[in-house]
């Protein structure tokens, strides 16, 4: 297992107790230098690294991007030779290595936890524990069993044993409970709130994020036999705790006070798929394309307000009016690309990723980790599955609020969400939808588009919804169920990797994937 404690010695020279984010993003780090920096500096950099690892940047693909593809929301533009690793599923343990970057990032958060008390920065322990839990949840969803209890110990455990994925998931709930205790006990010192580029030191929002992550972890297990009583008990404990969930805002990283108009300092999504610091369009702007399945489905439901925020009309973003399509924004001018198509759908005649994600000049948006829309659909599923759980609202109310929050985060007029109430449109009108759980799953899939591909892919594997077309590049019905353990881990921790048995990326499922 690869270990790295991220050192930010250059930041120590900045002095003071808060972060100059422009200087912060200019630093170069030396992984061979001895560890000696304040936890607050490491924490800020760890959050930024989390955003980059998930989003990707000009150096490479983030984990979310793969999720957008395999969830059936995005495909590849035809201006490039088709990537067979992604769209023909011809990948090996040398591809999609998110393992190393995630564990490096986890080491950063562990450094903060280990050193916060000694540096009188106890307020960073709770947030770091929340972020650790989120990253481990994503790691389990990608790889299954992995090092957990024996991990993040540097030289004390160079070949850590793997823990059972089910046990890790259960431990994450406990870890989040511990994080909440730390958060309540240690308010941010005002001089250090700028170190927190997620919630600016707002403890209540950190707790609500922790509770929302708990809901994600619990509902992910809802189809696993024998877990109902445990899930209901834990949800009731969240309600009793009383802080609530992400409501009307997102868990996000960075923003106008952090990202800067300079090379290497942009929002990572903008940097990868949008524009450079001078405003020149990136070549990769033509790469991710919303799928035909996604766009045709939105059109068929009359969901045009969200369509116009999820995608640009054919021809892309106007050069003169940022955030607006070159062509008239009418349904007829939106065209998706079939998943895995290698020809016939050039950038000029297909829709591109829209203004909910990319607008020229908007380089400093916060990078979203979790939306309040996702949380509302988690609550809707919880109430629909477990009528006796102590959540105060009905499944219908949570479902409808999920659509409202989806409109809001996309930048669409939220009044448009009301049009679906009583509309009789399957999977949009709760009362008229024959399968309520399917309606919740499909609306969550739509709401995750452009924001969280990892969750969309995980939810697709869990629910098998929506029924997306197979890649044109694939002659059978097989789809990836997980990733291989990377060859870097197999080389440094061979005995423990071998102990996991033979991994078939099309048949070896994550424990919550029971169908």
From TrEMBL:
Source domain of life: Bacteria
Protein's UniProt keywords contain Cell membrane: no
Signal peptide: 1-21
Keyword field: Lipoprotein, Signal
InterPro entries: SusD-like_2 (IPR041662), TPR-like_helical_dom_sf (IPR011990)
Transmembrane segments: none
Protein name, entry field: SusD/RagB family nutrient-binding outer membrane lipoprotein
């Amino acid at each position: 297992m690869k270990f790295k404690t991220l050192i930010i010695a250059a930041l120590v020279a900045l002095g003071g107790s808060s972060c100059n984010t422009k200087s912060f993003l200019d630093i170069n780090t030396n992984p061979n230098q001895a560890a000696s920096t304040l936890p607050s500096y490491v924490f800020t950099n760890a959050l930024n690294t989390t955003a980059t690892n998930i989003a990707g940047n000009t150096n490479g693909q983030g984990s979310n991007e793969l999720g957008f593809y395999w969830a059936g929301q995005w495909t590849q533009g035809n201006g490039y030779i088709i990537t067979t690793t992604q769209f023909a599923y011809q990948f090996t343990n040398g591809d999609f290595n998110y393992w190393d970057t995630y564990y490096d990032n986890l080491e950063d958060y562990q450094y903060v936890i280990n050193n916060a008390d000694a540096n009188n920065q106890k307020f960073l322990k709770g947030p770091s524990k929340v972020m650790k839990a989120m990253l481990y949840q994503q790691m389990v969803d990608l790889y299954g069993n992995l090092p957990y209890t024996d991990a993040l110990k540097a030289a004390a455990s160079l070949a850590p044993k793997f823990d059972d994925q089910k046990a890790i998931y259960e431990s994450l709930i406990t870890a989040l409970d511990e994080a909440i205790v730390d958060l309540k006990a240690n308010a941010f010192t005002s001089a250090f709130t700028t170190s927190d580029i997620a919630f600016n030191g707002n403890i209540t929002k950190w707790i609500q994020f922790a509770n929302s992550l708990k809901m994600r972890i619990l509902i992910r297990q809802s189809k696993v036999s024998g877990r109902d009583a445990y899930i209901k008990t834990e949800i009731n404990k969240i309600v009793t705790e009383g802080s609530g969930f992400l409501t009307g805002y997102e868990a996000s990283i960075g923003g106008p006070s952090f990202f800067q108009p300079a090379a290497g300092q942009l929002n990572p999504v903008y940097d990868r798929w949008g524009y450079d610091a001078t405003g020149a369009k990136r070549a990769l702007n033509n790469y991710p394309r919303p799928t035909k399945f996604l766009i045709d489905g939105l059109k068929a439901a009359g969901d045009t307000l969200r369509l116009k925020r999820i995608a640009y009309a054919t021809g892309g973003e106007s050069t003169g009016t940022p955030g607006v399509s070159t062509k008239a924004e009418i349904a007829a001018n939106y065209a998706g690309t079939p998943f895995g198509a290698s020809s016939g759908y050039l950038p000029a005649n297909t829709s591109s990723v829209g203004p909910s994600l990319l607008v020229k000049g908007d380089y400093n948006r916060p990078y979203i980790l979790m939306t309040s829309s996702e949380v509302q659909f988690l609550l809707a599923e919880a109430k629909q599955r477990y009528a006796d759980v102590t959540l105060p609202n009905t499944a219908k109310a949570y479902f409808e609020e999920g659509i409202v929050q989806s409109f809001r985060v996309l930048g669409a007029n939220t009044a448009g969400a009301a049009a679906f109430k009583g509309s009789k449109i399957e999977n949009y009108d709760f009362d008229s939808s024959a399968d309520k759980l399917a309606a919740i799953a499909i609306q969550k899939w739509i709401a995750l588009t452009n924001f969280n591909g990892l969750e969309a892919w995980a939810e697709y594997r869990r629910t098998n919804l929506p029924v997306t077309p197979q890649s044109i590049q694939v002659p059978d019905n097989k789809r990836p169920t997980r990733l291989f353990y990377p060859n870097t881990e197999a080389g440094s921790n061979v005995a423990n990797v071998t102990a996991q048995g033979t991994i078939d990326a099309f048949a070896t499922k994550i424990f919550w994937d029971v169908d």
